Amino acid sequence: MTSPAPDTETPDTPSTGAAEPGRLQRWLPIVVPILGVVLLVAGWGRDLNGIVVALIAVVLAAVVLAAVHHAEVLAHAVGEPFGSLILAVSVTVIEVSLIITLVTAGGEGSETLARDTVFAAIMITLNGIVGISLLLGAFKHGPVKFNAEGTGGALATVVALATLCLVLPTFTSTQGPVFSPPQLIFVAIASVVLYGMFVAAQTVGYREMFVPVATEGEKRRAADAHEHDSTPSRREALISLALLLVSLVAVVGLAKLESPSIEAGVAAVGFPPSFVGVVIALLVLLPEGIAAVRSARQNKMQTSFNLALGSAMASIGLTIPAMAVASFFIAGPLALGLGSTQIVLLVLTLLVSILTLVPGRATRLQGGVHLVIFAAFIFLSISP
């Protein structure tokens, strides 16, 4: 008759011990973005020493994690695929702002910075994020399943955007890898139209094609979990939206403060100037990479692919039109055409992505193949 007593007391014991970590986890995503903005204001326009640069790097990483947290809260509040779309567009805003900031500052390789960053974003998302997500997801859950119709449509849009924006200028222009003004205007409009068509299909027309695929057992477990896991309230979602915007502003600004150190570091180690675009893409895609890996570990591979393909698509479909408009106000050409080595890597990536995504089922083998291609991209970026 004494056995029920421990059962009634055991829930109380861990709850008091877990109170402080829970409170810390709640406050950190709120404090970190504000700290990032304060540090941004304090360091803007000043010469920074090595200690301050290191501090900014640490805070930048923390703000990125905070952005991931708030994006996940929003994703939980609005559901898929809207959550992935919010993060993809937010990250692209960072990318465009950072590219324009660095291009207007001039410097070696600034005319190709947009091309290098967008191409790096494609390689990072389609090879790095997809590869790591597949590898971790398949290791934990075995062969992973996803909706081939949704991923196939997204990949088709990425293929069209990449070819129109990054391959065509190499072959259609007599001025090198630079579009003529009418060509640039057409490609910018076509990019916006393609991206808009995909967003309409993803969020309105065929939303069911972009939600995670689940077995009956997983559906029952999700239903049971839903009874104990309430959806964030409207107030919580709005707070997370505001803090996500603050986080993105902080990331853009802090990355700008870090950019001289990045360029100096790239030059100091003897890497080509184009590697700056790779570093920028790695920085701005870190939130989506973390979110995609978390989703893969939860066996939500469709969400991982929504993030990866959505990021690649937004990076081309929004960055190129924004840079096309900016090119009329920025001195110097806007070189978008890829070189021969980059075209080969792009074609290989798109071909392997088709073979990975079309069947609707993948293993860690495909993840390994994507990661090898990603390693080849990084190596050839360092040693072209």
UniProtKB/TrEMBL annotation:
Database matches in Pfam families: Na_Ca_ex
Full protein name: Ionic transporter y4hA
Record keyword Aminoacyl-tRNA synthetase present: no
Sequence ranges assigned to domain Sodium/calcium exchanger membrane region in this UniProt record: 52-203, 240-382
Source organism of this protein record: Orlajensenia leifsoniae
Keywords carried by this UniProt record: Membrane, Transmembrane, Transmembrane helix
Coiled coil segments of this chain: none
GO molecular function (one): potassium:proton antiporter activity
TM ranges: 27-45, 51-70, 82-106, 118-139, 151-171, 183-201, 237-255, 275-293, 305-330, 336-358, 365-382
Compartment(s) of residence: Membrane
Region called Disordered, residue ranges: 1-20
UniProt membrane topology term: Multi-pass membrane protein
